[in-house]
Design brief:
Helix content: 10-25%
Distance between the termini: 60 Å
Radius of gyration: 24 Å
Strand content: 35-45%
Number of strands: 10
Strand order of the largest sheet: 1-2-3-4-7
Length: about 160
């Protein structure tokens, strides 16, 4: 600002900044911690943690195994999926969610399968076509608010 008032505002803000830096300076690593916190939040939101769990030998998600067990978590909600290949080549997906799930959908291209969890958080999808999919779950969080939990894409 080129006005007289603008110069006064800048001087006032500069004095306030100097006062707060001397009275209560920010921690030296504050900027680094904030960048890390934002990066972690983005990762947990964009990519839920994917872990393959299988008894015995570890199998790849895109492998030729007849079953795969996938675990997803965003730090608050955990989902476990067990994918089984049926004789006709379709897939059955049995799942469990540890939060109060209000809606569950398996999304694959332009098709989706809805499921309703039972009181223990169990749900299932039958006759799922092989391909890349994503699970979307609307859960009620500990704070009572609704949250959209999405897994990264995985191949069934």
């Amino acid at each position: 600002m080129d006005t007289e008032e603008g110069h006064d505002d800048r001087a006032l803000y500069e004095r306030l900044r100097e006062m707060w830096q001397s009275v209560d300076p920010p921690p030296a690593d504050l900027a680094d911690r904030m960048v890390a916190a934002v990066a972690v939040e983005d990762l947990s939101r964009e990519y839920a943690l994917l872990t393959l769990v299988e008894s015995g030998e570890r199998a790849a998600v895109r492998g030729g195994a007849d079953t795969a067990t996938l675990q997803f978590s965003d730090g608050e909600t955990n989902v476990l999926l067990h994918v089984t290949v049926a004789e006709d080549g379709s897939r059955r997906i049995d799942g469990w969610v540890d939060a109060e799930a209000l809606a569950i959908r398996l999304v694959q291209d332009d098709r989706d399968w809805p499921a309703r969890p039972d009181q223990n958080g169990r749900f299932a999808f039958d006759e799922v076509t092989p391909g890349v999919a994503r699970l979307r779950v609307v859960v009620r969080g500990a704070d009572g608010d609704l949250h959209d939990f999405q897994t990264p894409r995985f191949e069934v």
